[in-house]
Amino acid sequence: DLESHLQRCHQLSVTVLTDHQDLSNTELKTILNSTAPQQYRIRAKLRTYKPQKLYQSIKLHCSKCNSLQEVPGGDDFNFILQGSAITAPNPELHNTSWYDSVMWTTQDQKQRKIAIHFVKHDEMLQQPEDTLLMIEGGTLKEVWKLTKRFKCVIPVSSTEDDLELLDLSAPFLLQGNIKYYGCKRCSTPKPIKSLSSIAAEQRPSWEPTEIAQVLGIELLQYVFVMKFTLVDGTGALNAYLFDY
């Protein structure tokens, strides 16, 4: 567990943080006065590290605009789903040449209308573990139930002409327990019918990168980001860790 490992490092008086056994130790003061890039071996103490909680190290990164953002919480997604459920599914958009639709009304007081659209391949439904479906009017709990059974789930809402993705603050795609997000700045969402091009492939794999591409979404990648402050008595150096 990285967090307990970092705490142990923090407690040790001196920790060798880099390898390079062939190099002699260089003081941080010398490194701070040098021009990059150079390769050094240091002997230093870990003064602080950020963030303090390991889960806060996970961010979303856009390789196109190089932005870093926080991973939205489940409450944000739930709020967007609730907002989209206000608009009832448009029956005119059901049962097209490339998806079959099922609609029902919930038995609770709200009597929500839910529609699920199962994408077909060669005019046939695929096995659940290979199926992409779209859901309108579902709650967070219902969406997660579907991800346990089906390969891909895309939350959508209906307009007069087509199904469309929700606000990009919500994941545009869920696969297993992974939520995939798009960059709001760099994405230009296309109509959902763009997915029919993948359904027409010989063996649709429903890969997130391909789905993002046909839907005009710039896919955000999960990255691991940390900052360490190292000291050795001659100076303090900030070291950043950034990794996919």
From TrEMBL:
GO biological process: regulation of telomere maintenance via telomerase; telomere capping
Coiled-coil spans in chain: none
One GO CC annotation: nuclear telomere cap complex
InterPro entries for this protein: POT1, POT1_C_insert
Name of one Pfam family that matches: POT1_C_insert
Any GO MF annotation of the entry: telomerase inhibitor activity
Domain Protection of telomeres protein 1 C-terminal insertion: 75-218
This protein's name: POTE1 protein
Organism: Cochlearius cochlearius
Source lineage: Eukaryota, Metazoa, Chordata, Craniata, Vertebrata
Gene (UniProt): Pot1
